[in-house]
Amino acid sequence: MKKMQQIKKIQKCIEEIPGAVPLFSRIPGVVKELVDACNRHQCFDHIGSAPIPTHEAVVDIIHRARRILFPGYFSQASLSPANLEYYLGQETTQLFEDLAGQITLAVQHECFQTQKSCTHCQDQGLEKAMAVIEALPAISRMLALDIKAALDGDPAARGDDEVIFSYPGLLAISVYRFAHELFKQDIPVIPRIMTEYAHSLTGIDIHPGAEIGREFFIDHGTGVVIGETTVIGDRVRIYQGVTLGALSLPRDAGRRMRNTKRHPTIEDDVIIYANSTILGGDTVIGARSVIGGNIWITESVPPDTRVILKKPELIYSDKGRKG
Amino acid sequence: MKKMQQIKKIQKCIEEIPGAVPLFSRIPGVVKELVDACNRHQCFDHIGSAPIPTHEAVVDIIHRARRILFPGYFSQASLSPANLEYYLGQETTQLFEDLAGQITLAVQHECFQTQKSCTHCQDQGLEKAMAVIEALPAISRMLALDIKAALDGDPAARGDDEVIFSYPGLLAISVYRFAHELFKQDIPVIPRIMTEYAHSLTGIDIHPGAEIGREFFIDHGTGVVIGETTVIGDRVRIYQGVTLGALSLPRDAGRRMRNTKRHPTIEDDVIIYANSTILGGDTVIGARSVIGGNIWITESVPPDTRVILKKPELIYSDKGRKG
Amino acid sequence: MKKMQQIKKIQKCIEEIPGAVPLFSRIPGVVKELVDACNRHQCFDHIGSAPIPTHEAVVDIIHRARRILFPGYFSQASLSPANLEYYLGQETTQLFEDLAGQITLAVQHECFQTQKSCTHCQDQGLEKAMAVIEALPAISRMLALDIKAALDGDPAARGDDEVIFSYPGLLAISVYRFAHELFKQDIPVIPRIMTEYAHSLTGIDIHPGAEIGREFFIDHGTGVVIGETTVIGDRVRIYQGVTLGALSLPRDAGRRMRNTKRHPTIEDDVIIYANSTILGGDTVIGARSVIGGNIWITESVPPDTRVILKKPELIYSDKGRKG
After folding, report:
1. Which residue intervals of A26-167 are DSSP H helices?
2. Pairwise CB contact (< 8 Å): C203 & B203
3. How far apart are CA C78 and CA B45, in angstroms?
4. Which residue in chain B has the smallest CA separation from C86?
5. How far apart are the first and last CA of chain A?
6. What is the pLDDT of residues A177-218, one digit of tens each?
7. Do B308 and C294 touch (CB under 8 A)?
8. Half-sphere exposure of C315 (CA within 13 A, CB side)
9. pLDDT single digits (tens) C87-124
10. Which tens digits make up the pLDDT trace of B10-49?
11. Domains and CATH numbers, chain C
12. What is the rounded CA–CA span in Å between residue B205 and residue B110?
């Protein structure tokens, strides 16, 4: 017998067990308490207002965008020069419709929270979606340069296919470049769902608001954090565990520091090795500088500088003694 | 032609390729070796005993719990004040049944390993499932405070929706708070499957046995480890890469140190910045203290203390020379 | 009304909105630009050539391999000693066919890029797949030892089931051990898709080319990086955030350093605690040595040595003053 059937059978049995009946009678009390909490606004719910974007729909949009940006790599259809235009046309039209639908929901939802009605939400959804669609060719060109950067920078890379199929850095950057276009259109909620989806797959957390130049390469990537107001130039390369973050935040930072530049600026051709942390909105890493691994920097570094940690003192002891 | 069809066709062809026939004849030897290993107990298998919880069923339970704890955010159904009670009633009843089924399997499985028969497993499954269900309203209240903490602490947060939809910290904490209720009921295997599911999505590894107070906020979160016997007070905030772990473990730690307090205590209102590590069961970080980033602490810190790393010596060199 | 229906309805409406018509007319321009870029080889596409392995098919293969390597844990079927051989026989045959299909695609694709035709690709696919199948019993024995190592090393481990169901380290090692067999057969693209799939689930990034001995245990694991030319002995244990990586790479490292030993050698019985980094192809950590947490090592360490960081100077200040 299949396990699933066994499990179903067990669950069916529950309702016939003598002990189960008094237990079931305890559920309504729990439900009432949950409902009351929502009625008293002590829970976070999304009830009775306009529908909101769904995680699933946004993830679908990301995958469709990838199929357009890397034709033939992630699609079931076999592509040939003859059918490429037809394929891209169909996918792009569908992407526009899906985007317009989700963006409308996001805009509408925000609108309802403030003024309870919405006259231009659908127009805005359409306009913003089209602006994103029109950015696709530029994104495609940027990603081609990002792939080149991976091939140049990683001795373990065996070819374009391997980078496109399996490099988490490229996945995170692809999603970021797409989400950043939505962010520029001031679309609520969706850009962050997109980059957090990439974060969940890669461990690379790029805020959609960051500004990142050409030929960007992240190797390995787990633990990378790139904050909202970070600015990164061209041909920058970073490794796993690098944080480009904010200086220590006061307890009420949420309100006080919104919309200030809190994250660093990394100029062209900089390399930052694994697990280094660079903090602060006024911190600038000058062009062509190299930041060694495991370094904590809160002040600017001039161009053409190499920064390494003074060799930290290690204590070596024979394992007989306790070190 | 669709790629999948092509692939299917290739696979079908395999059986007709001349070279394939002698190859197929080598499979039985491999299978025999695999079977023999299991028969000699040299493999880990799960054969012939009671069915065990499945990863899929446990993940389903987590998603149902989230739909109850954040009504309207993750469900397909449109909710209104009129249908909320009906919706929560149905979902909660189903959650109870699913939980009771999986918990019964987990309890039964453990029971069979020691005594080969099980008289009270189903009753235990029901009782323990109901205890978890009855904790839902309290979990819901805790999560509302956790969301508030995220909005207070993160200047990049644009509203409740963004936090609920996309913050990995909230996802990890939600799953932890739910799994912790199962852990308190001494349910085997399932709580850890739950928190490891969250770990796989977020990079945040919270053991279900940890005890965590109100208004807990984890920002970014990748690389966070919170060990089994950690105790965390109210209004604590931690950043990516923070480990609350055990001091170095001897080789046979598995047996010798089970059930001892091995992980630190973090009192109320503490902030711990990115990539800091706090180790040891006797280590207490006193209330309102602030631990800077990149710090390694194995001793207690008094209340109201700020701890930062003495500015490590960095070596700056012109990039012409090799640093 | 179901949300999905609402969303569908919104999307349907889009085509009827007056403002939408002029917007739709802007899509062909975007599509033309995307097509032109591909025609001028300014995009990365996969058009008109042989079909390539798909991510989905490779992930299916991983899951089938896990069902064979841990019989009864991840399968729907209930197994008994009576049906075990039948079950393993069927699964192993299917795994062989799936592997042969995907490997043929990978080999063919690489072949086409250089010589436009392929005479032995299918034979190679079959032979290489069979070599992997014949390695299954040895992988199974290795994994049994890896599970033992987890139980020995982790005081929080409550039993085999918990380790097999939920330990990210075991998942990453299982996928690595399987992918490594493909890597040894010099199969393009697929081994890396496999280990990057595990990386996305666990935050543990093991290159399929690394060589890893018996009884390997990774605890927690997020942020672990094990580079392509790393060699690891028996009974080694490592913790979250450990990098076994390459020394700083020149900008054109991709070309210049391929196929050189760039990553360290870790001898038998070594323990490396959380967030330590060991770099360089000539770096050898001698047998039975213990490397403390948060350490940066670029030189060899003799056997039987304990290495810890000299207690870094911390600055403690009263929180009234700014630290």
Report:
1. 27-39, 55-69, 84-115, 121-134, 136-153, 160-166
2. yes
3. 12
4. B31
5. 57
6. 999 999 999 999 999 999 999 999 999 999 999 999 999 999
7. no
8. 12
9. 999 999 999 999 999 999 999 888 877 766 677 888 89
10. 566 666 666 667 788 899 999 999 998 888 877 788 877 6
11. 47-203 (1.10.3130.10), 223-250+257-312 (2.160.10.10)
12. 25
pLDDT tens by residue, A126-155 = 999 999 999 999 999 999 999 999 999 888
* Helical segments of C167-241, H only: 168-184, 190-202
With beta carbons under 8 A apart, name residues in chain A contacting B173. Answer: none
Tell which of C61, C86, C127, C314 to mutate to test the B interface (max B CBs under 10 Å).
Answer: C314
Q: Which residues of B4-15 are buried (b: 16+ CB within 10 A; e: fewer)?
A: eebbeebbeebe
Chain B neighbours (≥3 Cβ pairs under 8 A) are: A, C
Nearest-angstrom CA–CA distance, C1 and C17: 22
Between chains, do A158 and C192 touch, taking CB under 8 Å as contact? yes
Question: Hey, how many other C-beta atoms are within 10 angstroms of the C-beta on A78?
Answer: 19
The residue with tokens 């007056």 is C18
Quick: pLDDT tens for A252-281.
Answer: 666 667 779 999 999 999 999 999 999 999
Looking up tokens 């305890």 gives: A26
What's at C59, amino acid-wise?
Answer: V
Residue C78 per-residue DSSP state: P
**Cα–Cα distance, C45 to C255 (Å, whole number):** 23
Q: Tell me whether residues C319 and B51 touch, CB distance under 8 A.
A: no
Three-state DSSP at A164 gives: helix
Residue type, A102: Q
pTM here? 0.91
Give the span between the Cα atoms of A175 and C96, in whole angstroms.
Answer: 35
ipTM for the predicted complex comes to 0.88
Q: Which helix (H) or strand (E) holds B183?
A: helix B168-184
Nearest to A80 among C47, C253, C258 (CB): C47
